[in-house]
Design goal:
The chain has a 4-stranded mixed beta sheet with strand order 1-4-5-6, sandwiched between helices. By secondary structure, the protein is α+β, with helices and mostly antiparallel strands. Helix 1 packs across helix 3. The protein has 2 domains: 82 residues, Trna Endonuclease, Chain: A, domain 1 (3-Layer(aba) Sandwich); 33 residues, no CATH class. The protein contains 3 helices and 6 strands; from the N terminus they run αβββββαβα. A hairpin with a 2-residue loop joins strand 4 and strand 5. This is VRR-NUC domain-containing protein. One of its GO terms (molecular function) is nucleic acid binding.
Length: 126
Amino acid sequence: MKDRSEKAIMNASLVEVSSLPETLAWRNNTGMAWQGIQRPVRKGQTLIVQAGMVVLMEARPITFGLPGSGDILGVNAGRAFALEAKTLTGKQHETQLRFQAAFERAGGLYGVFRSEEEALAILGRG
């Protein structure tokens, strides 16, 4: 098995999983971003602006997604699933382990995969 990035594994697996019959699957993003009023600043002012920088007034963080939830969520033949992509050496974080336990207690199918083949196998299609 070739060592690829988590993003590459997730993207390729999402394509494969999405193509299964009786399946609806989507990328589940989680994280944090900043929101505010964008303010133009000229070079040489108090703040030295470098290419690509954005200055926000009244900046505030916005979190999105449920921490620990799977990278791919969906339904396959009537059963909810959550799939977590990992590299060959990647390990689940504590929040991911807690999400897995709660999801499985609720009757969902959860699995960690390191390749497209493993993602399909979790859904019984590999």
